[in-house]
Amino acid sequence: MESSFPTEQVYDSDMDQRPQTPPAETVQPTDGSPYPPFPGVEPYDTVRSIDDERAHRLHVCALGYRIFGSMRWGQLGDGHISARDPEWTDHFWLLDWGIPFGQATADRLVLVGPGGRVRDRSGDYTGAVNTAGYNIHAPLLEARPDAVSAAHTHTPYGTPWSANVSPFLAISQESCAFVFDQGLFDDEEVEVLSYDGGKRIAAATGSAKLCILRNHGLLTVGHSVEEAVGWFVMAERVAEVHVKAPNAIPISDEAAAVAASTLGDPHAGWRLFQWLGAGLDS
Ligand SMILES: [Zn+2]
């Protein structure tokens, strides 16, 4: 996104004071990307121990819920963000039932196992999570071993757009991240009451980062929690453009592919999360 791409240094009006080279600390990424690091954020490709990775996933999963809460999403208990456990890879973490998204913390997440069995942080079996949360996330994460997380909630533009039963077109910059990498779940199981419904969603998603669930809303998938949440928020922005510009004319596939090459990779989704989380991370 051009507004965040540090392609040039901005200097004050005193051109005589303009340095020949920017200060080194502003141009030295630590993760191989062309971007400077985010203050206080571990680099994109940080390798962690199992315990540290679990703690990280729990931290960013809770932060993802708070990001959704800051947008007034999930107020009706609609939606979920999953984080696959790094050790028990057929288990994933979700926010415990009844916790407002804006109050999500790592210690309020619960571990969901095969069959929907739910344990708290102490390992004790506890109540249940949202049924659709299990039915959507379990088969999706099973079908996508490359994925760590999926994100879904009912949003002001994603849900209306989904009722058109149409994929996104390349009608805005951010749209290009999805137009070559999206699925459409054209199915009437809008409440996802069955595990089989989730398996059909996983099949419709395929290897894509986005699935538009007919008459329901948006679902995104990421190789990290950060990526899934970043894609979700950007997909909602794309849906807003689609709803507000019903007669929009898309750019060419060739031009869209150029934008997709920088906007659509996993690192881009991760960066979106860092912008979203800044100020909500405590
Ligand atoms: Zn839903």
Structure write-up:
With 282 residues, this protein is an alpha+beta fold. The chain has one domain: Class II aldolase/adducin N-terminal domain (L-fuculose-1-phosphate Aldolase, 3-Layer(aba) Sandwich). 33% of the residues lie in helices and 12% in strands. It is built from seven helices and nine strands, in the order H-E-E-E-E-E-H-E-H-E-H-E-E-H-H-H. The strands form two sheets. Strands 1-6-9-8-7 form a five-stranded mixed β-sheet. A four-stranded antiparallel β-sheet has the order 2-3-4-5. Helix 4 links the parallel strand 7 (182-185) and strand 8 (210-213). Helix 2 crosses helix 4 (195-205) and helix 5 crosses helix 7 (266-277). The radius of gyration is 19 Å and the shape is globular. It starts with 49 loop residues before the first helix and ends in a 5-residue tail after the last helix. 39% of the residues are buried. Mean pLDDT is 89; it is low at 1-29. The site of zinc ion has 6 residues, from loops.
